[in-house]
Write a structure and sequence with these properties.
Elements: H1 2-40, H2 53-60, H3 62-93, H4 100-112, H5 115-126, H6 131-139, H7 153-177, H8 181-189, H9 194-222, H10 226-231, H11 238-247, H12 254-279
Length: 284
């Protein structure tokens, strides 16, 4: 009996300790998600009734499918480029050369700057009269006019890469610095060259860190709002399309916007599950 009361007391203490976290999870995530799902099933402009018409209309609309494709294109491209740039940069920064702390600081700056301010800064830097184009026109002889970067698809990918690649780079660098150098030395003593050590030893061991960072990068890119809103021009991913349904149309299309938000969340979860399963396969 005494053991039973002691166990109940421990369970009660555990529940009380978990209560603030559970309340925050319910109030900040679960309840808003339920409201969004319920609103997405309401006929547009009505306060009662249930329908899947909002989902059907968006998915059957060619523009809606183009928006989904655009969102995936930008997010996947930026994530792939973040991996491509992060691994070599992490290998360089691991060497602790003079000034490496300064370069690490530069790498973190995009995550310190708020998204809206970062988007405005990118517009000023890469605009037709920004420093980027002024430098090219002045110092590159074969460039006679400004290169269009803002309001283009490749410009969006560049902006996403600059803002969100630190997620991949920092986790890759942490995994690389945690790697015991003796493992690489043993492989080289056994006769492996530098490429073989990198390909068969280093990359498989740091892949969990690369995977974790690339997942964060993809999630940030997939749900980015400030950057495409200001610099996307006619390229409007799902987040901006949701905003457009609420702020542009009169009256606001809350049910349509909620349906798009649910579709966006479902696609993101499905892709991340597939992505993590693929990257967790052993490297040949």
């Amino acid at each position: 009996m005494r053991d039973f009361l002691k166990q109940r007391r421990q369970n009660l203490i555990t529940l009380l300790m978990l209560a603030p976290g559970l309340a925050g999870f319910f109030g900040l995530f679960f309840y808003p998600m339920l409201v969004t799902v319920a609103l997405s099933l309401r006929p547009e402009g009505q306060s009662s009734g249930w329908t899947i018409e909002n989902y059907v209309n968006f998915l059957n609309d060619p523009h809606g499918r183009d928006v989904i494709l655009l969102t995936f294109t930008i997010a996947i491209s930026a994530t792939a480029l973040s991996i491509l740039f992060s691994i070599p940069l992490a290998l360089i920064l691991r060497e602790k050369f003079r000034g490496h702390r300064f370069f690490r600081l530069l790498m973190i700056i995009p995550r310190v700057v708020p998204g809206l301010i970062g988007a405005l800064g990118l517009m000023l830097l890469f605009g037709s009269r920004g420093w980027f184009n002024l430098f090219l026109i002045r110092f590159v002889p074969f460039i006679k006019g400004p290169i269009r970067v803002v309001h283009t698809l490749h410009g969006l990918i560049i902006f996403y890469l600059w803002l969100y690649f630190p997620f991949t780079c920092l986790t890759s660098l942490s995994a690389l610095e945690a790697l015991d150098p003796a493992v690489e030395e043993a492989a080289m003593v056994a006769g492996a060259n530098r490429w073989q050590v990198l390909r068969h030893i280093v990359l498989p061991l740091i892949m969990p860190g690369v995977l974790a960072g690339s997942v964060l990068t993809f999630m940030a890119c997939f749900g980015a709002f400030s950057v495409p809103l200001l610099t996307g021009g006619n390229y409007r991913p799902l987040s901006v399309t949701i905003y457009k349904q609420i702020e542009v149309f009169i009256p606001a299309r809350w049910s349509t916007a909620s349906a798009i938000a649910v579709i966006m969340a479902a696609l993101q979860v499905a892709f991340l599950s597939l992505y993590m399963r693929i990257l967790r396969r052993p490297m040949a």
